Amino acid sequence: xxxxxxxxxxxxxxxxxxxxxxxxxxxxxxxxxxxxxxxxxxxxxxxxxxxxxxxxxxxxxxxxxxxxxxxxxxxxxxxxxxxxxxxxxxxxxxxxxxxxxxxxxxxxxxxxxxxxxxxxxxxxxxxxxxxxxxxxxxxxxxxxxxxxxxxxxxxxxxxxxxxxxxxxxxxxxxxxxxxxxxxxxxxxxxxxxxxxxxxxxxxxxxxxxxxxxxxxxxxxxxxxxxxxxxxxxxxxxxxxxxxxxxxxxxxxxxxx
Amino acid sequence: xxxxxxxxxxxxxxxxxxxxxxxxxxxxxxxxxxxxxxxxxxxxxxxxxxxxxxxxxxxxxxxxxxxxxxxxxxxxxxxxxxxxxxxxxxxxxxxxxxxxxxxxxxxxxxxxxxxxxxxxxxxxxxxxxxxxxxxxxxxxxxxxxxxxxxxxxxxxxxxxxxxxxxxxxxxxxxxxxxxxxxxxxxxxxxxxxxxxxxxxxxxxxxxxxxxxxxxxxxxxxxxxxxxxxxxxxxxxxxxxxxxxxxxxxxxxxxxxxxxxxxxxxxxxxxxxxxxxxxxxxxxxxxxxxxxxxxxxxxxxxxxxxxx
Amino acid sequence: xxxxxxxxxxxxxxxxxxxxxxxxxxxxxxxxxxxxxxxxxxxxxxxxxxxxxxxxxxxxxxxxxxxxxxxxxxxxxxxxxxxxxxxxxxxxxxxxxxxxxxxxxxxxxxxxxxxxxxxxxxxxxxxxxxxxxxxxxxxxxxxxxxxxxxxxxxxxxxxxxxxxxxxxxxxxxxxxxxxxxxxxxxxxxxxxxxxxxxxxxxxxxxxxxxxxxxxxxxxxxxxxxxxxxxxxxxxxxxxxxxxxxxxxxxxxxxxxxxxxxxxxxxxxxxxxxxxxxxxxxxxxxxxxxxxxxxxxxxxxxxxxxxxxxxxxxxxxxxxxxxxxxxxxxxxxxxxxxxxxxxxxxxxxxxxxxxxxxxxxxxxxxxxxxxx
Amino acid sequence: xxxxxxxxxxxxxxxxxxxxxxxxxxxxxxxxxxxxxxxxxxxxxxxxxxxxxxxxxxxxxxxxxxxxxxxxxxxxxxxxxxxxxxxxxxxxxxxxxxxxxxxxxxxxxxxxxxxxxxxxxxxxxxxxxxxxxxxxxxxxxxxxxxxxxxxxxxxxxxxxxxxxxxxxxxxxxxxxxxxxxxxxxxxxxxxxxxxxxxxxxxxxxxxxxxxxxxxxxxxxxxxxxxxxxxxxxxxxxxxxxxxxxxxxxxxxxxxxxxxxxxxxxxxxxxxxxxxxxxxxxxxxxxxxxxxxxxxxxxxxxxxxxxxxxxxxxxxxxxxxxxxxxxxxxxxxxxxxxxxxxxxxxxxxxxxxxxxxxxxxxxxxxxxxxxxxxxxxxxxxxxxxxxxxxxxxxxxxxxxxxxxxxxxxxxxxxxxxxxxxxxxxxxxxxxxxxxxxx
Amino acid sequence: xxxxxxxxxxxxxxxxxxxxxxxxxxxxxxxxxxxxxxxxxxxxxxxxxxxxxxxxxxxxxxxxxxxxxxxxxxxxxxxxxxxxxxxxxxxxxxxxxxxxxxxxxxxxxxxxxxxxxxxxxxxxxxxxxxxxxxxxxxxxxxxxxxxxxxxxxxxxxxxxxxxxxxxxxxxxxxxxxxxxxxxxxxxxxxxxxxxxxxxxxxxxxxxxxxxxxxxxxxxxxxxxxxxxxxxxxxxxx
Lengths: 256, 307, 371, 437, 237
Ligand SMILES: Nc1ncnc2c1ncn2[C@@H]1O[C@H](COP(=O)(O)OP(=O)(O)OP(=O)(O)O)[C@@H](O)[C@H]1O
Ligand SMILES: Nc1ncnc2c1ncn2[C@@H]1O[C@H](COP(=O)(O)OP(=O)(O)OP(=O)(O)O)[C@@H](O)[C@H]1O
Ligand SMILES: [Mg+2]
Ligand SMILES: [Mg+2]
Prior knowledge:
The structure holds five protein chains of five kinds. Chain D has helices spanning 10-26, 30-54, 66-71, 76-97, 99-110, 114-134, 137-162, 170-189, 205-223, 225-228, 236-256, 275-294, 296-306, 308-313, 318-344, 354-367, 372-388, 396-410, 423-427, 433-436, and strands spanning 266-267, 346-347.
């Protein structure tokens, strides 16, 4: 059974058909890519899968459960972590709190614990802090744990998003243009991080990217979306040489 | 039937005031995304300016050789009060809002509230505790049309309210100044990058909003000729309700919500025991917003944020 | 405390800011005039000693909790001997509780709510009560015009109009049977548009309108009523009795009636003297609040003097003043003769005033409580 | 822009001198300060009155002389002298003398669970307040109202600060709590003309009072559903209107309930809200609210405020969070209302209108958003200011707004905003902490 | 020399973001600034367009005029410097068309404005399709097109571009850079900030490398492209 299965998903924004008859099946431990011109509907697909929008038509199954219509946070708690194309951090919270927050669904001390500060609560908060610090270590920003996110450089903010997404114990990680705003050097770093989390946690990863070097090196299979429809799917090699993809998306000369 | 029609006329007049104050509110709200809680009191100041202007003009007319007719005094009063009050608005912007431009909106709301209190108490301290009687610029003539009593005042008020609403709507939607105002509501930090002077736009917005408040104040003085320092509070808060019920920054929305509020209040009084008016009227509003979570013409809360 | 009582402190608890600043102003002016008189006499003669008198004026912002704070402060901090105020029942009811608890005599000049003095031996008032005024008006209208159908318009959120409207309704229905109040409409504090209520009143077939509102609202109600085609009598209560009424209402109010504590136009003797002095000093004819405050202050003064001597122990002196106050008989005030009953309320006559077509408040009739 | 740097001016020299003088006090633990204050207030109890007379004042200055200062400026030197003799000098001496011992005790206490230290400090704090207030009842009343204001402000900060809504419904919650508690108390424990004889022996009143207050809080929390449920679908300005409507509805409802006095108000509440009672409730409020906002469940409010979609995507149950925030805040507002009613022993719907709203909003934003300490400072500061300036009458309502505007301009989120309140930090001994603990 | 910057210092509160940098741009040039995250690239552009205040001691001259005497809006309306800010910063509540019209706020030449808007639509046909859509609902890349489009329409003697390629599909990225080149040939000077250092260096004539608020290297773009240090640090070699 695939980890995530999307069948015949279609979505309209008013009269605009943003996604049409989209299918996807991701196995445990795969890294998959989604590319396509701007406005093709890639981010929309992420939003549909994660429950931000509800698809007009289609089925989405995650870990054997149908998740269409579930609220975002329940889908996330099932093990689907994501990052956002335009950063969506919590302005007034520290880096550490960001990562702790994502463990919300794992908390079970309840309101009594929250109001009265029971032993159980203190225990759990402590454990959560430790786990959060480990994750920050993993993405290399432990030393910034107490800083507020607003003043951090863009690249660091991206890492916070990554650590935050990892804290929900994901089985599947959705990354929307994780390299945007990074220079090639940092891009290599990030690739390293992604490989590492992939290996450590055995996660599946599904990512949207415009930086071809990144996609081609990381992904096992890639889909190309144009006007909401998949025009090609295959290994990086196949995609790179697919004339339709070159015409609609890559162009002749590919820069990283 | 006459009873019903009479109440429609009543509601139209009452709604006109909510509408006029609400669009002034909505101007500032729509542009700077700020609650201008001083607006009700700016309205009060407008009414007072109107009072002094009108009294002065009437005194002039009384002693001078030239006979100025009442309607001319009204027009002059409207123009002068609108003009002068726009400076009050600009001063409010300068003192209470410009320094807080990148503060949380709620903080600016508090300064607005405080400026309002200063205007009220300032009035009380300077002009004393007595109420003022607005001079009768157009002596009321009562017409009886098929069991419905209408006065010339009512007609003037409703017509002016509608005209100002439409004019302002045109301005905000279709001129580049209007666009700049709306842009500023969204992200004022980049507005200068378009070569737009933000301080000018902000001042202009407050000036326009306050001019409208003055118009409302003068007409209010004509219809309800008792002025006091606290006259702006209730109408200000209710206009706040209307401005947002109409949808953020939408002039037509604010105006229609203003009229709607007038209609709700009048008709609730007509149908239910009048003691229950606020209870029922606000329950209706609460229900409207529960089912139309973005007001009438508004964008959803998160329109600004994109995934 | 107070090191042997060289000064007598009198507390004034008044709404200087808030929604009825004019009431506060009248209170304050009256008190200052009163103090000026005492100062001119070189102090207040008690027994064989002259005391300097100080006013402690506290603003209650027209809020209940502020009035309580002000009373507590004046009693426990400033050690006032007696308190005048608060004026509105909204503040006088809770503030009276404080005065009573601290055993400090207090007179509210203007609060007509029975609760203010009820079961509070230390609290007095300077005016008649709503349960008295309501029937006075009902009887007057019945006798004068022979009407049987009444309409009432009142502010539901304010204590005074609401109470009076209820007492009037009760009295009217007692006279003319249930349902004889054909329209009983209300609005909320701060409203200025009464068109819907007045339209309903118009339709109800009432023969007159009773509206126990403050003068500023009266002007609006009366004008709007006329604009909606109403041309029957409108009757009011003591809250109409301000010189401002005519300024605001103009000829629309001519010919209407209201009950009140005193009639300024055509007043005689001490009343006239007071009015003239006040007018000369502050430039307008004093409202009933000012007159009642004046009377209350003088009751306090009489009580202090009747006490005979001040010990300097504030608790003893307060007790003495209270007892003296309770024992005052036939105090001759500018708003009428007063004797307190056991709950601290004076039995006073009401005056019916007609607004003349020059806008003066003309004495029309006096109605006294039946013994 | 950068602060103009370090040419040693006179002002800088003065600042340096000042901070040098202040140095020793840096190491004074809270315990030390409390001890010092206790000595000062005791001193005032014993010699305050006589000293005041000696200095030409008629009585002990109730609010540290601020009120007197405005009424009789000529007394200014006396007041300063009084403050120095009763407060500043004794506190300074005691604090310095007991510095090391207080730190030792604090360190010793710190070895036990935190609640023991906390309790110790709280008892001491109460002693200070009690001794201070008992001097005269005006102080008692002010202290009570200030503490109630603290509860109110804190609870509003939960919604407006921590969750970032502009809720206007708080006067409504206060009213619900006030009326519920009053009605139950009067019905059950007071022989009253309106509600008839007490259903239970009035002597039981004090024991049931806490339960009744909680009931009031619970009813207020229930009424908060009216605002909380729409908040699932709408936020920001629209919710502000919903909450405002709620406030109007509650006020109108009470005005129409003749049984409870309507506009005339409701009185006869038993005299149960004594200083210690109000104090204990205030401490509980601060404690639970602070616990809540520091837990991950509470911080979820911040996540909802800063970016709801992101919060949702990170497993935060946004509905639960909003619901909890509104209900919890309303609960405490209800308690505050109940206490208020029993302090005033009279409530009327007019006390819960726009004026009240403006006042609580001002306290929250003045003190500081998203901060427990801020709310405490805001409530105390605002009440103090408003009492202190009372002699100015009308001008008071010009000066207070001007001050608030200045605060907003220079500290747009309030005096102390976005700060975690860590009791451990506060109670810790202040000398070279590492060795001691 | 069109723009010369001397000893430019900028601080955000206590954080000093620029420690006194010097550089210049000649008329008609394309100059790029590259550097790591947080190096201060965007801050440099913001300082030029007067969005952030420069600390005392900084000097900026533009066409012989003291830039520091102009406010942010006058820099655009009187000096003709346009700025595509980081993160697009569109007016999400206005339509695409309104965004474009607004960017010509300070211009009076109605005809020329229309022509420029047409031209933007020529480069980005997608925008013309979405003329009436609210900018806030455009896809990330579409937003980027509009952000660049706005700069075309507003004054353009000097164009400051902050990461114009961010989030653009490869094909589109090429067309944007082609368009920029064309504009440059028509006389617009361009100062480009890019993460995609290789792209930026290929496109520009000269480049500066900025590191934690200091310029550490400058030179002809080709030379930088071949410089081993640059290669190692910024080209991901
Ligand atoms: N809320 C919305 N309302 C209307 N149209 C929308 C909305 N959200 C997205 N769209 C439109 O749907 C299309 C797909 O958008 P989407 O954000 O999925 O693109 P994308 O593939 O992620 O592009 P990019 O690579 O530029 O981020 C776009 O044309 C966009 O304008
Ligand atoms: N508004 C701000 N408040 C505080 N610090 C800021 C602000 N903007 C930027 N900074 C800080 O100034 C420094 C320079 O930032 P700048 O945005 O100029 O970098 P950049 O080179 O453009 O980086 P990036 O490639 O991430 O866009 C960074 O350390 C950043 O954290
Ligand atoms: Mg996208
Ligand atoms: Mg940048």
